[in-house]
Amino acid sequence: ASMVLSFCGKKVMTETEDEVKQKYLSEFEGIATDIAKRYELFPSVVLAQSAHESNFGRSKLSSEFNNYFGIKANEGEEKVSLDTTEYIDGEATVENENFRKYSNPKESFKSYGELITKAERYKPVVEAKDYKEACIELQKNGYATDPDYASKLINIIEVYELYKLD
């Protein structure tokens, strides 16, 4: 349901959760598709993963530091320290981690493409036959510690019909 807030007689529309998500997906569809094609990945997976990792562009990491994939910083890279939820033996715990900072979203998407295609452990992701297999391989090969990671990505792809981009 949509909500109308009134301030000093002015009507201010607040977007519904679904509108916020749709807006993110249409705004980032182009960049996700470009990067996916350049690195021979599935556009649906790139877009869904960026949406999930950035809470549809609302996380502090994405909105302030242009990191849409939760990419951790290596020694000597520009970084920001933020709290993040990690799963250790299936238990959610909050950890403080160093994340990479990017000057714009495109840089973040390109960095993701390089990470997935250059890191040996993600080879099965690149070789996946479809988006489901790619999502399962991302989880299996340690992209995230969340035990439901693959199903969360697949859900975004199916709810928003992102497979049409592949």
Strand order across the largest sheet: 1-2
The helix/strand order is EEHHHEEHHHH
State the end-to-end distance: 32 Å
- Proportion of strand residues: 15-25%
Note the overall shape: globular
Q: Can you give the helix content as a percent range? A: 40-55%
- Secondary structure category: alpha+beta
Tell me the major beta sheet: 2 strands, antiparallel
Overall number of strands:
4
How many DSSP helices? 7
Q: Uncertain segments of ≥5 residues (pLDDT<50)?
A: none
Alpha-carbon Rg, integer:
17 Å
- The mean pLDDT is 91
Write up what this structure looks like.
The protein is of the alpha+beta class. Helix content is 47%, strand content 18%. The strands form 2 sheets. A two-stranded antiparallel ribbon has the order 1-2. The chain has a two-stranded antiparallel sheet with strand order 3-4. The longest helix has 22 residues, at 17-38. The relative contact order is 0.16. The model has no long low-confidence stretch (mean pLDDT 91).
